[in-house]
Design the sequence.
């Protein structure tokens, strides 16, 4: 029933136009590759469930810290990145490929360029996911959010991404449809921008076959990371899904998009503006003011194209709302588009400095991203799956009723997830900012954590509901698949481009020129996104005064460096920031606000983005060594009611001294001013400092071998933020 | 530190914001003008591309 094999009189407007021209050749017969679409669909559902499970597990650990099972591999700091990476790159990633491989073939009226490339792409991507999950749980991480995977996997991602692009552009080039429908523009821009973001943000210097240091440090690393982080949201979670929306929504509603004009403006405005907005993740941080303001201005401007896109989607359904009531596919899509509208309105609001002062570092941000992830990406994916599977398997959906149940459970899940997180975020921020009439901070950080616990639990319930809904979908789709038979090779017919001697009406326009030329489209998309990035980076990298150096800031000692690597390995940044903002409450709570010059040797930066625990930028010297020792062994012994998991393995494992020279050499290459030949002395210095700390601990009746990891971690924590204190004492 | 301080360190920096604004302004003016003046029929044809299969299958809806 989906075959394209009809006679010429049923041809589309465009080919009708071609028919008017003098030469009409014979129709080509070809086959769409549905098999690869089905593979990606299975992967989408499978990794979706896995990603959500990891999310639920991580969420539950905040209420029941014992669910870390006292194992390094399963602590919050390690599985939270597994969750975020799984949802973004495994669930949404496979969802993108599923949608692109289905729609691109049909929009181009051709089979994918190469079956082999399709297969390599599929298996390459799945192996990246598996390797990623394993290495993250083993503690191999770059600590750059949503780019945590270590360098060999970064290389693999690059190769597989190039294969995807090659396959996609090859398909576009051999197409039988002159015009590139707007969805394809979004795919092209996605491909080229993600390639750029991934390569620039993954610049790192390896020092073992699975470890590396970021090529950038401090402010620059933060700027590159959030330029990437923000645009990963933009170009991995948004633009490809907008492409899918522009294809699958008209399909499901059986009517063209409301305004094709609007979609053109939507596309160019979105890719032009998005790339500039990254610095809004660093408001009030030690980033030059002009860069922060740039981020805010462009974020506000983003409302226009985002809402243009949302309205374009919703208005496509004008006059068809009665069908929305009947059709679960459309229901999912309507909620998805509404969630897109909500998230893209909230995003710019959060980038206003006054709002950001409250929301940043709290669960408000977590709520915001989940409106996008669960609502926009989740529901659009579900809608597409419900539409696609029955079509490919030439049958009806097994149960419309179950799909409706999924819809309501899922919607309830989103509400139960986000509402508690909004309340929690707002509550925590206002508690932290309160002072007593005497001018003292009213609440300890730990007291606010206690208040968060019921909300954390409610959020887990929301996540659980969402997961149950997804499982119901899997059951429904499996039953559907069993009832039908996949049309793996779908027959279609179309005129080849060479035989389409299209009559041109009036003057051909420049934009129509570009929209028929995929390579030019790719090139200009790249230019547009490069401009935004260049304006942010060049001044920050080239103009020295943007990062004022502080003479008292010195490189880390080898032991501190080893401790820092443990801090990175354990994912401490997932709960602790190292960035005191210039607010009265933060300065009173944590100490002097952070300066750009303080993190010039931080490869990678550890500013963080969320405070489930307190800021650590100035924790050095705040507590005795023994406090950290006891706290890391059992956090509740020092902070009653803490939700931090214990780290017993740090007391059993030794610091690997053999890699220390390589670490020092890598740092030297990156410009950290260790004296020449220091790599040979580093190990000695390390044991000396470790013995000193062990002796100090022994004074408090805490026996530990100086070689243990805990000693290095204590050295690092005690160093944090002390460089400035020294200069103040002078 | 104020934006001024950074910008003063780059020679002839004043031209950059002007060029950026011009590129931005001209590009979006052209784009908007084109979408407004371009032939509606053409857009309608392109926007039907995703529907071709279903239209071929259900010719009755072709007129929509």
Sequence:
């Amino acid at each position: 029933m989906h075959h394209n094999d009809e006679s010429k009189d049923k041809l589309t407007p465009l080919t009708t136009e071609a028919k008017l021209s003098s030469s009409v050749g014979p129709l080509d017969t070809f086959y769409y590759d549905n098999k690869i679409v089905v593979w990606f669909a299975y992967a989408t559902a499978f990794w979706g469930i896995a990603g959500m499970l990891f999310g639920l597990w991580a969420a539950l650990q905040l209420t029941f810290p014992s669910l870390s099972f006292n194992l390094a591999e399963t602590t919050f700091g390690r599985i939270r990145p597994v969750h975020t990476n799984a949802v973004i790159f495994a669930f949404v990633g496979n969802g993108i490929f599923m949608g692109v491989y289905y729609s691109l073939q049909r929009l181009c009226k051709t089979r994918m360029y190469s079956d082999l490339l399709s297969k390599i792409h599929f298996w390459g991507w799945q192996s990246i996911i598996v390797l990623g999950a394993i290495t993250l749980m083993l503690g191999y991480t770059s600590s750059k959010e949503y780019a945590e995977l270590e360098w060999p996997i970064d290389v693999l991602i690059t190769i597989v991404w190039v294969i995807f692009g090659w396959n996609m552009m090859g398909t576009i080039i051999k197409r039988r449809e002159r015009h590139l429908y707007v969805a394809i523009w979004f795919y092209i821009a996605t491909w080229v921008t993600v390639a750029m973001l991934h390569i620039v943000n993954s610049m790192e210097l390896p020092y073992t076959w699975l470890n590396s240091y970021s090529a950038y440090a401090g402010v620059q690393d933060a700027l590159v990371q959030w330029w990437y982080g923000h645009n990963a949201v933009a170009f991995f979670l948004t633009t490809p899904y907008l492409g899918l929306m522009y294809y699958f929504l008209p399909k499901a509603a059986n009517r063209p998009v409301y305004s094709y004009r609007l979609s053109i403006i939507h596309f160019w405005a979105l890719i032009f503006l998005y790339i500039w907005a990254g610095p809004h993740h660093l408001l009030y941080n030690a980033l030059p003011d002009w860069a922060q303001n740039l981020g805010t201005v462009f974020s506000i401007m983003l409302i226009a194209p985002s809402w243009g896109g949302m309205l374009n989607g919703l208005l496509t359904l004008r006059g068809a709302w009665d069908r929305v009531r009947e059709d679960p596919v459309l229901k999912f899509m309507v909620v998805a588009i509404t969630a897109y509208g909500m998230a893209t309105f909230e995003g710019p609001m959060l980038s206003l400095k006054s709002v950001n002062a409250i929301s940043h570092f709290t669960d408000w941000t977590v709520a915001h991203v989940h409106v996008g992830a669960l609502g926009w990406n989740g529901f659009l994916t579900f809608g597409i799956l419900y539409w696609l599977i029955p079509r490919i398997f030439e049958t009806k959906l097994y149960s419309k009723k179950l799909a409706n149940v999924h819809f309501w459970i899922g919607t309830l899940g989103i509400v139960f997830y986000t509402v508690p997180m909004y309340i929690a975020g707002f509550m925590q921020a206002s508690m932290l900012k309160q002072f007593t009439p005497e001018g003292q901070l009213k609440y300890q950080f730990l007291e606010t954590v206690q208040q968060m616990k019921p909300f954390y639990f409610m959020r887990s319930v929301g996540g659980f509901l969402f997961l149950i809904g997804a499982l119901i979908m899997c059951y429904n789709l499996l039953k559907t698949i069993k009832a039908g038979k996949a049309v793996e090779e779908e027959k279609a017919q179309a005129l080849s481009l060479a035989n389409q001697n299209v009559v041109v009406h009036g003057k051909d326009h420049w934009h129509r020129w570009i929209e028929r030329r995929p390579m030019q489209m790719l090139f200009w998309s790249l230019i547009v996104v490069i401009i935004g990035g260049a304006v942010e980076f060049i001044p920050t990298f080239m103009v020295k005064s943007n990062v004022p150096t502080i003479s008292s800031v010195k490189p880390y000692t080898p032991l501190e460096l080893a401790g820092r690597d443990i801090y990175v390995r354990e994912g401490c940044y997932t709960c602790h920031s190292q960035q005191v903002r210039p607010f009265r409450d933060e300065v009173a709570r944590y100490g002097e606000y952070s300066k750009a010059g303080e993190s010039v040797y931080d490869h990678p930066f550890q500013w963080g983005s969320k405070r489930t625990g307190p800021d650590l930028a100035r924790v050095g010297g705040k507590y005795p060594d023994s406090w950290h020792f006891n706290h890391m062994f059992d956090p509740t012994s020092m902070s009653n009611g803490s939700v931090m998991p214990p780290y017993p393995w740090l007391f059993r494992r030794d610091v690997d001294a053999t890699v220390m020279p390589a670490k020092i050499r890598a740092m030297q290459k990156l410009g950290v001013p260790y004296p020449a030949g220091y790599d040979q002395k580093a190990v000695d210095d390390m044991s000396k400092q470790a013995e000193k700390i062990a002796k100090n601990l022994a004074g408090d009746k805490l026996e530990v071998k100086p070689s243990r990891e805990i000693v290095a971690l204590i050295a690092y924590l005690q160093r944090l933020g002390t460089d400035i204190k020294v200069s103040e004492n002078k | 530190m104020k934006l001024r301080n950074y910008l003063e360190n780059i020679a002839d920096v004043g031209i950059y914001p002007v060029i950026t604004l011009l590129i931005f302004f001209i590009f979006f003016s052209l784009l908007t003008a084109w979408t407004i003046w371009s032939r509606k029929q053409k857009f309608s044809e392109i926007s039907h591309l995703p529907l071709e299969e279903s239209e071929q299958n259900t010719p009755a809806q072709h007129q929509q």
Observations:
- The domain at 558-729 of chain A is CATH 1.10.760.10 (Cytochrome Bc1 Complex; Chain D, domain 2).
- Chain A touches chain B through 52 residues (CB under 8 Å).
